[in-house]
Amino acid sequence: KAGVTQTPRYLIKTRGQQVTLSCSPISGHRSVSWYQQTPGQGLQFLFEYFSETQRNKGNFPGRFSGRQFSNSRSEMNVSTLELGDSALYLCASSFEGKYEQYFGPGTRLTVT
Amino acid sequence: AQRVTQPEKLLSVFKGAPVELKCNYSYSGSPELFWYVQYSRQRLQLLLRHISRESIKGFTADLNKGETSFHLKKPFAQEEDSAMYYCALSGAGSYQLTFGKGTKLSVIP
């Protein structure tokens, strides 16, 4: 099976802009979670989607949003970018009922 | 609030020596506990899940509910064990993982 893929792998944006990141889960996986990884805060949960519905949301401002499509692919959007949004954004997918999460390679976002 | 604490940022051991990576958690209820590992230039991947009680790559982890700990152990470290190790928990029925800050294990040849 192909693993979780994320696009783009690297992104450079300017403060105030918005960005959309994409995640394609492993075939058959309907749960998709997003995490932010920074040197200071480590890995932090952003949100989780299942069957196009957000099931859980982490403690992030409303500038962070996401969605999931009928084919389980997911996107996350960050509006009005701030310098502190520079991070590695990881996507993970799971098969329903199985708690192992399979992670993608991440998208490295740099905000200047 | 749920929390995972890994007290060591870096742990260096000699090849063949025993390894113990510490993990303590805070959670009201019965959590699911995991160890994830990230080898150099590879993705984060699951190493162990407490409920499976398996030994993976020689590693084991025992859940101690009294001490709220889930330490990862291996009797004889190998060079290929050098990696970043993350302890994580989720609530029962939840896919939301709370991670510790991670411990970098360096095995000295």
Can you put this structure into words, describing what you see?
The complex is a heterodimer of chains A (112) and B (109). Chain A is mainly beta and 112 residues long. Chain A has strands at 5-7, 10-13, 19-24, 31-38, 42-50, 53-57, 64-68, 74-78, 87-94, 102-103, 107-111. Chain A is globular and about 40 Å long. The termini of chain A are far apart. With 109 residues, chain B is mostly beta strands. In chain B, 0% of the residues lie in helices and 49% in strands. Chain B contains no helices and eleven strands. In chain B, strands 2, 5, 6, 9, 10 and 11 form a six-stranded mixed β-sheet that branches. Chain B has a three-stranded antiparallel β-sheet with strand order 3-8-7, with no helix packed on it. The N and C termini of chain B lie far apart (41 Å). The A-B interface holds A 3-4, 31, 33, 35, 42-45, 48, 50, 55-56, 58, 90, 92, 94, 99-106 and B 32, 34, 43-46, 49, 86, 88, 90, 94-102.
What's the structural blueprint in terms of helices and strands?
The complex is a heterodimer of chains A (112) and B (109).
Chain A: E1 5-7, E2 10-13, E3 19-24, E4 31-38, E5 42-50, E6 53-57, E7 64-68, E8 74-78, E9 87-94, E10 102-103, E11 107-111
Parallel strand pairs in A: 2-11
Antiparallel strand pairs in A: 1-3, 3-8, 4-5, 4-9, 5-6, 7-8, 9-10, 9-11
Chain B: E1 3-5, E2 10-14, E3 19-21, E4 24-26, E5 32-38, E6 45-49, E7 60-64, E8 69-74, E9 83-90, E10 98-99, E11 103-108
Parallel strand pairs in B: 2-11
Antiparallel strand pairs in B: 1-4, 3-8, 5-6, 5-9, 7-8, 9-10, 9-11
